[in-house]
Amino acid sequence: VENVRLLDRLSSRKAALGTLYLTATHVIFVENGSETRKETWVLHSQISSIEKQATTATGCPLLIRCKNFQIMQLVIPQERDCHDVYISLIRLTRPVKYEELYCFSFNPKLDKEEREQGWKLVNLNDEYNRMGIPNNYWQISDVNRDYGVCDSYPTEVYVPKSATAHIIVGSSKFRSRRRFPALSYYCKDNNASICRSSQPLSGFSARCLEDEQMLQAIRKANPGSDFIYVVDTRPKLNAMANRAAGKGYENEDNYSNIKFQFIGIENIHVMRNSLQKMLEVCELKSPSMSDFLWGLENSGWLKHIKAIMDAGIFIAKAVAEEGVSVLVHCSDGWDRTAQVCSVASLLLDPYYRTMKGFMVLIEKDWVSFGHKFNHRYGNLDGDPKEISPVIDQFIECVWQLMEQFPCAFEFNERFLIHIQHHIYSCQFGNFLCNSQKERRELKIQERTYSLWAHLWKNRADYLNPLYRSDHSQTQGTLRPQMAPCNFLYKFWSGMYNRFEKGLHPRQSVTDYLMAVKEETQQLEEELEVLRERLVNLQKSQLTDNKVKSKQQDQSKQLGLSTSNNSLANTPQEYSNDLKSFPSRSPSQGDEEDSALILTQDNLKSSDPDLSANSDQESGVEDLSCRSPSGGGCLPSEDSGKDSDEALFLA
Amino acid sequence: MLRSSQPLTGPNRKRCREDEMLLGMVLDEGERGFIIDTRSAQAAKQARMTGGGTEPKSSYPQWRRLHRPLERGRPLQESFIKLVEACNDTSINMDRWLSRLESCRWLNHVKAALSTACLAAQCMDREEASVLVHGTEGTDTTLLVTALAQVILDPSCRTLTGFQGLLEREWIEAGHPFHLRCAHSAYSHARLKQEAPLFLLFLDCVWQLSRQFPFSLEFSERLLLTLFDNAYASAYGTFLCNNEKERCLCKVKENTHSLWAWLSQPGEKKKYLNPLYSHNALVIWPSVEPQSIQLWQGLFLRWIRSSQYLDEAWAEIQRLAEGS
């Protein structure tokens, strides 16, 4: 469709005129620019809602909201065309079969061997070995080898040595969805562990010998403690209500040596609504400080983030400081349980704060343990009540931690944002379906590519320049301040306002420091080489006094420009109301002047050079993964990497 | 950019030829200027009743007046006190923290100050028009706007020495009554008289700029904190008294040491430098969206939460930037 306008959300006067294209996998807007021909690509998988708004004199507005928080405001001149686009998009964004998803047609032109290697990059067996398992206390069990015991669990689960197959099977029958207690994390320093499960089917008074034995087995696997914590991450009221439905929680009287604890994280529906409300705040036009703070509080979003974090902190403390094992569950053990276990693991083990370790963590606690990616993130058209930003919240917890501990993570904010992006993009096969069983049935690894390999290939973009493996912050357990600490939780504008260039500075500290680091390293290497040469020269010309040595000046200034100052920025609309600037005639009434909005015509352009595309791979599919940031397969972002940076130290 | 106090128009709409001539001389034939009045239109009008007022359009035809009300005086001090209390309150739940923060209104004031300074800067840089800034007395919000606008516009004000010069010019010599304004800080239980944290608000705004433009200010947060400390209690005479006249009478220059002299010693100076600094010749336009304005943790949470991890991060940045 031609002559479509793409509006800029923050600056209502900025609109680009161009052509809108709909393909099998993307929505593409190409600007009628002279030099730049800027393109905006959006994957259908990313689109969460399409809103047709009332026709105005200028055309028919169409608002596209994306799961990665991009918002496209289009204005299509003809109503007929607008309607066609709308109907098409409705169909395109509600796939019925997995095969419709982009990952089945995405072709990065790797051979079969490379595809396989990509999938092998993260190996959970290796991970449990790294933890020190199997050992005297823990073993691998193949009781679920055909998914016969629990179809949402992986084929390989790790259980206490004293948990026989009989106990496991019995326990699984007493757990919602048959998700029996299994190992998530083992701390070899003190044998404490984090196990996870779903809620017991205890109702008001039911008992199960095998389930009680299972918990005992977990306790016995840690000789350093005579009890375990059982943490129910639900609010007490919800858990109690579940009892009426024949489910519920563990009774301390029945299970010997447990200390039971509610943590009170709300359910997926509350979280879905919370995000919705927060996004509404983000969509406010020129909100006041009060509007923003009230709106943010009203959404409850940061409160929920803190609740998840507090739960993770509690569990990490129990393991690291008390040396006590913890069994975590919620209702089904695939949402809050996953969040809390992975936050706790991250706090406990510095390995998970490395890039590779983080991939492993997600693979372990989210992918292998059957988090319902399809239902939660809408790979396919499904029940809207199943949609919830569960992993988004976990990712935000990681970001909040990165802000508090800037030296502790090997990866940077961009890494997190890209992972979130690809969980929704369905460009790679890692986050499809609801369980390992479903993915194997679909032969995902043979038909799609792994995101981890792609990120790993581009890992230079994702490094945190402040990370040093020998730094005190990277050693051991992270101990975030628990209280008072409300103020430590910030609004993540790098994620929720990701595409709003006006909000983000163009000066990226991360990129600058990475460049400095690289150059320093290069210089040091050169220095080494020269030193060696000098030594050799001196050796070979011992008697010759005319040896000249040329040494690098160690303190030579790095000739780096601190990013693109010229991209700096343009003034925004610094007024509250959006009345246009009055005419240039100085004679006006004696009234307060209306808002001063200056025209943006002669402003310095804030758009970076887009001609530097990412690695051109070839074919139509390849274009779809073109992005100006040279990071390979990312959707369009209007500016280069710079706008993605928000690594600010307080 | 010019600054003044309010014209004494009064209820009878008095005129003053000299004042009109003075402002007329600033502008060329056909040029226009902007007057940024830091009072609301209503407050400015009411000021007439007590002898003050605004510049009437008819008498100052080339000047367009814009009202951008900025908080000052008692309400601003209370905002400050409330914020400090809120930060110290360990009993607030997360689900009430943001509304508590909002009720202090401090961040609203930061946003308003930055927006107004940006407006002044926009007038000069984009419209290429002269700007006159005044409130009532020209010693509080006026100076906040003019000083901040210069940091935004002028790269030389972003260097360490340039910034010091700016403070000397726009705050000290311009007659901001430090003695009255900084008599008591947020914890004091004394009855408030003329205290108001305008200077702190200015420093907060500068901090917001440094956060949004991490490469563009030659000085670090540490300098801002030191200035804050010294405005309220100092071993140096720099922030003493309320104006140059008083400083002369008290013989401040003869009897005290200058803060700047101490800060500029090489051993001291390097503590206040920003390791990421690189001269940025452009105007820096901050975002004043609420998401872009943050609570200045380094100041308001200074004694409440450990800064260890952030300090370590800065040490690392320093190490990297020095290429060691």
From TrEMBL, chain A:
<protein>
    <submittedName>
        <fullName>MTMR7 protein</fullName>
    </submittedName>
</protein>
<dbReference type="InterPro" id="IPR010569">
    <property type="entry name" value="Myotubularin-like_Pase_dom"/>
</dbReference>
<dbReference type="InterPro" id="IPR003595">
    <property type="entry name" value="Tyr_Pase_cat"/>
</dbReference>
<dbReference type="InterPro" id="IPR048994">
    <property type="entry name" value="PH-GRAM_MTMR6-9"/>
</dbReference>
<dbReference type="InterPro" id="IPR016130">
    <property type="entry name" value="Tyr_Pase_AS"/>
</dbReference>
<keyword id="KW-0175">Coiled coil</keyword>
<dbReference type="InterPro" id="IPR011993">
    <property type="entry name" value="PH-like_dom_sf"/>
</dbReference>
<feature type="binding site">
    <location>
        <begin position="330"/>
        <end position="336"/>
    </location>
    <ligand>
        <name>substrate</name>
    </ligand>
</feature>
<dbReference type="Pfam" id="PF21098">
    <property type="entry name" value="PH-GRAM_MTMR6-like"/>
</dbReference>
<dbReference type="InterPro" id="IPR029021">
    <property type="entry name" value="Prot-tyrosine_phosphatase-like"/>
</dbReference>
<keyword id="KW-0378">Hydrolase</keyword>
<dbReference type="GO" id="GO:0012505">
    <property type="term" value="C:endomembrane system"/>
</dbReference>
<dbReference type="GO" id="GO:0004438">
    <property type="term" value="F:phosphatidylinositol-3-phosphate phosphatase activity"/>
</dbReference>
<keyword id="KW-0443">Lipid metabolism</keyword>
<comment type="similarity">
    <text>Belongs to the protein-tyrosine phosphatase family. Non-receptor class myotubularin subfamily.</text>
</comment>
<feature type="coiled-coil region">
    <location>
        <begin position="513"/>
        <end position="540"/>
    </location>
</feature>
<feature type="compositionally biased region" description="Polar residues">
    <location>
        <begin position="558"/>
        <end position="588"/>
    </location>
</feature>
<dbReference type="InterPro" id="IPR030572">
    <property type="entry name" value="MTMR7_PTP"/>
</dbReference>
<dbReference type="GO" id="GO:0046856">
    <property type="term" value="P:phosphatidylinositol dephosphorylation"/>
</dbReference>
<dbReference type="InterPro" id="IPR000387">
    <property type="entry name" value="Tyr_Pase_dom"/>
</dbReference>
<feature type="domain" description="Myotubularin phosphatase">
    <location>
        <begin position="118"/>
        <end position="496"/>
    </location>
</feature>
<dbReference type="GO" id="GO:0005737">
    <property type="term" value="C:cytoplasm"/>
</dbReference>
UniProtKB/TrEMBL annotation, chain B:
<dbReference type="InterPro" id="IPR029021">
    <property type="entry name" value="Prot-tyrosine_phosphatase-like"/>
</dbReference>
<dbReference type="InterPro" id="IPR030564">
    <property type="entry name" value="Myotubularin"/>
</dbReference>
<protein>
    <submittedName>
        <fullName>MTMR9 protein</fullName>
    </submittedName>
</protein>
<dbReference type="GO" id="GO:0010507">
    <property type="term" value="P:negative regulation of autophagy"/>
</dbReference>
<dbReference type="Pfam" id="PF06602">
    <property type="entry name" value="Myotub-related"/>
</dbReference>
<dbReference type="GO" id="GO:0005737">
    <property type="term" value="C:cytoplasm"/>
</dbReference>
<feature type="domain" description="Myotubularin phosphatase">
    <location>
        <begin position="1"/>
        <end position="300"/>
    </location>
</feature>
<dbReference type="InterPro" id="IPR010569">
    <property type="entry name" value="Myotubularin-like_Pase_dom"/>
</dbReference>
<dbReference type="GO" id="GO:0046856">
    <property type="term" value="P:phosphatidylinositol dephosphorylation"/>
</dbReference>
<comment type="similarity">
    <text>Belongs to the protein-tyrosine phosphatase family. Non-receptor class myotubularin subfamily.</text>
</comment>
<dbReference type="GO" id="GO:0019903">
    <property type="term" value="F:protein phosphatase binding"/>
</dbReference>
